[in-house]
Design brief:
The protein is α+β, with helices and mostly antiparallel strands and about 150 residues long. The chain contains two helices and six strands. The strands form two sheets. Strands 4-3-6-5 form a four-stranded antiparallel beta sheet, with no helix packed on it. Strands 1-2 form a two-stranded antiparallel sheet.
C-alpha cells in the first residue's frame, strides 16, 4: 500500500513537469495580429546605449504590433548596443542568443512587455515561470513529502 502512494506521488510530480513542458510553446511566433502598441527603449551605438536603460537615461519609442529587442555586438573587445522594435519574437528568441564568428559576437533577445529591453545582456535572464505552474509543482512536492512521511509511520 505504501508503494502505491509513493507511485501516485511520483506520477503527480511527472504530470506537473509534463504540463510545464506543454505550456512552453517553443519556437512558435507570437500572434501580432492584434496590433498592440508596446513602449520599448530605443538607442544605437552612437547614443548612450551601453548602460542599463531606465526612465532617467533611456529614450523610448512606441512599437505598433512589434516587440522590444536588444542587440549586443562585441568585436575584438569593443562592445556596442542597439535597442528598438522588431517584428517576430519567438519563445526561442526571448532567451539570450549569442553567435560568434571571426572575433565578432552578436547577442540578441526580444521581449513583449513595455520597456522590457533595458538590460545589458551580460547574463542569462532568469526563466519566467507561470505562477500557477510553480504553485502546482510546489504543491506536488509537499504532497510527496506528506506521502513519504506517512509511509515511514506505517
Amino acid at each position: 500500500m505504501k508503494y502505491i502512494r509513493l507511485f501516485f506521488c511520483i506520477a503527480i510530480v511527472l504530470a506537473t513537469l509534463v504540463r510545464t513542458a506543454l505550456t512552453q510553446e517553443d519556437g512558435e511566433a507570437e500572434d501580432n495580429s492584434n496590433s498592440t502598441v508596446v513602449a520599448c527603449y530605443s538607442c544605437n551605438s552612437t547614443e548612450i546605449c551601453d548602460s542599463e536603460q531606465n526612465e532617467e537615461n533611456g529614450t523610448t519609442v512606441e512599437c505598433d504590433g512589434q516587440h522590444c529587442w536588444t542587440w549586443k555586438y562585441d568585436e575584438d573587445g569593443i562592445v556596442t548596443y542597439a535597442r528598438g522594435c522588431g517584428d517576430v519574437c519567438t519563445e526561442d528568441s526571448k532567451e539570450l542568443d549569442c553567435m560568434t564568428s571571426n572575433n565578432k559576437t552578436e547577442c540578441t533577445k526580444c521581449c513583449s512587455d513595455g520597456l522590457c529591453n533595458s538590460d545589458l545582456l551580460n547574463h542569462a535572464a532568469l526563466a519566467r515561470i507561470n505562477p500557477l505552474v510553480f504553485l502546482s509543482g510546489l504543491g506536488s512536492v509537499f504532497a510527496c513529502i506528506f506521502v513519504i512521511d506517512n509511509i515511514h509511520n506505517y
